[in-house]
Amino acid sequence: MTKFIFITGGVVSSIGKGIVAASLGRLLKSRNYSVSILKLDPYINVDPGTMSPFQHGEVFVTQDGAETDLDLGHYERFTDTSMSRLNSVTTGSIYQSVINKERRGDYEGGTVQVIPHITGEIRSRIRRVARNTSPDIVIAEIGGTVGDIESLPFLEAIRQFRKDVGRENLMYVHVTLMPWLRAAGEMKTKPTQHSVKELRSIGIQPDMLVCRCERPLTEGLKEKLSEFCDVPVKRVITAPDASSIYEVPLVLEQEGLAQSVLDCLHLEQRDPDLEGWRTLIDRMKNPKRELEIAIVGKYIQLSDAYLSVVEALTHAAVQCGSHLKLRWVNSEDLEQFPAADQLQGVAGIVVPGGFGSRGVDGKINAIRHAREQKIPFLGLCLGMQCAVIEWARNVAHLDDANSSEFDPNTSNPVISLLPEQEDVVDLGGTMRLGLYPCRLTEGTRTFNSYSQEVVYERHRHRYEFNNAYRSLFLETGYSISGTSPDGRLVEIIEMPNHPFFVATQFHPEFESRPNHPHPVIEGFIKTALGLTGGLTPETPSSEGVDETLESAAQVL
Fold this sequence. Notes:
single chain; nine-stranded mixed sheet; seven-stranded parallel sheet; about 35% helix; globular; disordered C terminus
């Protein structure tokens, strides 16, 4: 039978529940237990897809096209397991489902209430993950902080869940803050005591405390927490601040987190295999060189807006024995000041995704600088579209070239909606979301990176390369190195005779893992480090694909 672990947070928000959940998943998987992790988010949005990156950070896209909380990215990276839309639950999606059922008459005229209907829907979502993925253990992280009014239905649901599966088949883990008062010279337990009291008031007794702190807990403090919170001393776990989130699993392993969890759930103790993870941390702590990469974006005030990009670059840099140093460049600044001044000395330039026209001209200026100065360049989603616009304006001499997203009246929409998308008005209705196949062109840098003909990558975008301009781009020197299998959609462009100039319509960062960097991103990092020699080959022959391209252009 599947076991369940519910992780709650107390005292302050952003306490690190997601990293604790992901780390516990890693430790259990290292013991050959299958794990699925889901996030229960208390906000009323149906999903974070329409939320500002400044408020919520990045939107993580699953393989089946769900727009989810960034914590699902942590879950995937730590456990090396792909999540799905089943692993993301919000208050908005719960209420939407319940209201739809009420409108259909599923409740047979009954009064719809938070209890039992809302809490019942939450419990059914948790059971659905267990039923559809059949893991040994389901870990559910409840967003927000205990005491928030928004979280109450979720907390009531997980309290009720105890009766659904039996007390021996679930446990409650409470992540809390232990503040260090410098003036008093001591760590305080009172906030944790009050947080546990709040949990108890709604009928949940935590089985384990994970205490976030600046320094390790003393045995005396652990005993005090054990006494006041009614938690065994061995289940009071220290989670001190770490230099990297990837160190946390090893810190928690040393604290005995996984062993205590298995004891509590009456599961077999198994020896962990963490050798690969220890090697990863050793590489991170002992880099052979430093590499400075510029990220040119418009949400740089909140680095979480580009979280997966940063992590993917880090994975590749660590794999290459390097410490990644990031230079955050506001793309709006590049509309006022020379790109050469803002980007001087960087080893590579990344232009990540985004939506809207703000800062786009600055991104285009950064791409032109990378192209002309032969600086390794990687464009992701909007970064690819900006690279197309830059080439159209400055090489193909289409001075007014633009995306119809930014200028609906442009006479040269090199990026535009597909014809069948133009009449769709709902946000998300025109989006290409989730995993799609991409056929690679032999002889290109991208093909050499993957070493296979067809790959599958995650998308999150609305506008596409306009096929009416394909011939012009090919004639003026661009290489289209990846398309949809039918040749209709352009997925990857690259510029021959450049150290590294690759832009993808998809988001390779979502597929990167700490021990398995994405091949395109690793190729970019290697080139920036000077680990690959020479320029890319001349534009590959288009023999064998000309007919496909021509027919696609006619269709569009």
